[in-house]
Amino acid sequence: MSRHTPSMSVMVAAARKAARGLQRDFGEVENLQVSLKGPANFVTAADRKAEKTIFEELSKARPGYGFLMEEAGVIEGADKSHRWIVDPLDGTTNFLHGIPMFSISIALEREGQLVAGLVYNPISDEMFIGEKGQGAFLNDRRIRVSARRELPQAVVATGIPHIGRPDHQGFMTELGAVMNEVAGVRRMGSAALDLAYVAAGRFDAYWETNLSAWDIAAGIVLVREAGGFVSGLTGRDDMIESGGIVAGNDMLSRKLGDLLKKAHKPS
Ligand code: IPD
Ligand code: CA
Ligand code: CA
After folding, report:
1. Looking at residue 41, what is its pLDDT?
2. Distances in Å between the alpha carbon of 145 and those of 73, 127, 135, 234?
């Protein structure tokens, strides 16, 4: 069983409330699929609504905490030592296409340090939570990163840049290096869930670049609390600033990081 702090209870309640709206709206998207215009506007509205719910719930429970949210951006709070980092819908493309692989991601930062993370998939009803020093849990069961130590046995997740996103060539270079060395590469479409899956030992490792703080803040806590290691692509602890991330157990994250660095070095 997980023992969690009152702050985590607040995060769980906010996520569950927003999830109810997303579940309803996801059902609608499936009906809207056939319309020519597609459900894009509808999804934008669902995303905003979920963010508003999370914002209201967290503000009610913890007045004064600041926010960094995907849609609303930075909202300063009177309490300068606490900040919520929120992605109300991570995996928008999946949501829009009726693919049931998306999540709500909420992290808490205290004095600039990530201390709690929650990633919730409302469709599979999988709630991943972790708090600094308390371990990581999936629906109240303790989770740990995978114990595999060799890349040829590893399933590695990533994100693929798409239209309107930078550095397609850089990604091709990375993929070219990684796919040659591993058991399989996966692209699920939600960075927050990718990290939660690493924490649960489903993915052995994960890397991606050009991410935002709200995509990865909660997942970083989960991986660390599941006994894993997280860094930026150069090996530094700069994931939030650089938007690049490599995650896995100690051994695999180092091996994957080295492979990526080597791939980018001019030969
Ligand atoms: C995206 C997802 C995706 C990642 C993208 C993100 P969004 O977030 O996390 O897996 O590859 O780079 O932008 O737009 O669905 O919230
Ligand atoms: Ca989002
Ligand atoms: Ca996102």
Report:
1. 85
2. 32, 16, 11, 22
Q: Please count the structural domains in the chain.
A: 2
Residues 163, 225, single domain; the answer is yes
Indicate whether 126 and 194 sit together in one domain.
no
Judge if the beta carbon of residue 25 lies within 6 A of ligand 1: no
| Mutate which of 47, 175, 190, 197 for ligand 1 pocket (most atoms within 8 A of beta carbon) | 190
Give me the count of residues in the chain: 267
CA–CA dist 155, 219 (Å, integer): 18
Strand, helix or coil at 51? helix
117 lines ligand 1 (CB under 6 A): no
Whether 155 and 208 map to the same domain: the answer is: yes
Nearest ligand 1 atom to the CA of 90 is 16
Same domain, 160 and 111: no
Q: Confirm whether 207 is domain-assigned.
A: yes
129 and 220, same domain (yes or no): no
pTM: 0.97
pLDDT tens-place string over residues 73-132:
999 999 999 999 999 999 999 999 999 999 999 999 999 999 999 999 999 999 999 999
Would the pLDDT of 34 be above 80? Answer: no
Q: Which atom of ligand 1 is nearest to the CA of 212?
A: 13
Residue 261 has pLDDT above 80, yes or no: yes
Instruction: Check if 232 has its Cβ closer than 6 Å to any atom of ligand 1.
Output: no
**CA dist list (Å): 255 to 102, 179, 189, 200, 223:** 28, 14, 24, 20, 17
For the segment 43-48, the average pLDDT, to the nearest whole number, is: 92
Question: Which of the ligands is closest to the CA of residue 197?
Answer: 1
Residue where one domain finishes, among candidates 143, 173, 202 = 143
34 within a domain of the structure (yes/no): yes
